[in-house]
Fold this protein.
Amino acid sequence: MAHQFFFNPYILDNLPAPASGFDVVQDISEPRLRMYITSHGVKSFFVRKRVHGRDKRIIIGNWPEMDIESARAAVADVLTAAATPPPVRRHQITFKKFLSVYMANRVRRREYSREKLVRAINRHLSGLFEKNISEITADDISRVIDGIDGRAIAGRMQELLQSIFNYAIEMGYLKENPIVDMPKVVQHRRVRPLNKSGLVRLMHVIEKQESPTLRAAFQMLIYGFAPKSAIFSMQWSDLDFNQYTWRDRPLADAAVVLLQNIDQDGKWVFRGRGRGHLTDPRTAWRKIAHDAGIENLTMDDVYKFMMRHLIWASDREEFRENMNNLVNEIFE
């Protein structure tokens, strides 16, 4: 049975990723709405519907690209559409035109993420654009997928095409998915190289960093329980040291002490060049990871490690206590 609670942004932001596979949680306000949390940290709203005797799980959208109220509002329409027989369309439509329909109706992403997807589509799938979608064969898809350099992006494009063709069936342009039986692209998943002893070594090296800004920012990657993009763009206006919170999310004691020792001048906590905030200090990070003896370590590996070991709790104070316990367990 899925774990049930009232979906809210704070809880969904802090749901930990499972070590493997996926977890499922269920909304109390709209019990038909559920969420997958994968081991890679992807969080997807979905509903279940029995269609023609088969249990069908329908993805609505990903959090946080889709907000909670939009997901709740979409449940009824998605379930109704799933139970409606697809129309039979006699006229043809090119893959490019249908792709525009798919992007408008099925892709719910923030602007930057959407633009990134469009660039990938234009680069890798343009060979299919002028073909009628009903005439595209498994051989056509195989040639496209085999021509993509990189197994990871090839796998993502195959998954995207699977979704596009399934939607074409729903819309009545296809009777069957041309790649339903195509073997999935074998992807060599990256093994995250961090463990507790490695994290202790990493902290010792970070403490020797000459730049005060980089030293504090890298320490906050450990104490902040958030991705690097969120850490580096922290603003003083988002912090409340009376409540020990950052954007209404709890801060561990170590994070509070660290932040209070930084000069509070300007807009950004971690200032970069010019008037902006710190962005992506890769060179400094690679040297730190090398000195700690952890090659190929990314900054977000630290966040993933901390969240995998953090015990989740819906109560904010209990969650903050769990943060403190984890930090103490590692470094004391």
